[in-house]
Specification:
mainly alpha, elongated, three-stranded antiparallel sheet, Arc Repressor Mutant, subunit A
């Protein structure tokens, strides 16, 4: 198993976002298994021709999302966090459903709002 990242300098999303998205997708797909040790920030930055701060920003976002975990000087690893991400999304969905009901939306209108938001988000 190896980390395969391609940064498109002409891409529509920022390099840190491209990095975050690709690592997250590979972790979800199992291409990068739980416990896989990621390169150091400086090492990956050098390999990809990015600034260390760019890679650090992506790693911070991935850690915040529960995709990776940093174990101090031992390194950064893919976390067993698929469940954590699913729990967070389920909690957000529950909060949304409660709020939509309190605002008087019926199920169809609340669902349509979510569909519209997802379409817009994934079209980016």
């Amino acid at each position: 198993m190896t980390l395969k990242i391609v940064i498109d300098p002409a891409g529509t999303s920022a390099p840190f976002e491209q990095l975050r998205t690709q690592i997250s997708a590979q972790a979800r797909a199992g291409t990068l298994p739980v416990g896989y040790r990621l390169p150091t920030v400086r090492g990956l930055a050098g390999d990809l021709g990015l600034a260390a701060n760019t890679v650090a920003k992506a790693y911070r976002a991935l850690e915040s999302d529960g995709v990776i975990e940093t174990r101090g000087r031992n390194g950064t690893f893919i976390a067993a966090a698929g469940d954590a991400a699913e729990r967070e999304v389920a909690a957000a969905a529950q909060a949304y459903a409660e709020r939509a009901r309190r605002l008087g939306l019926d199920r169809e209108a609340a669902s349509a709002a979510v569909d519209d938001a997802l379409r817009a988000e994934y079209a980016k």
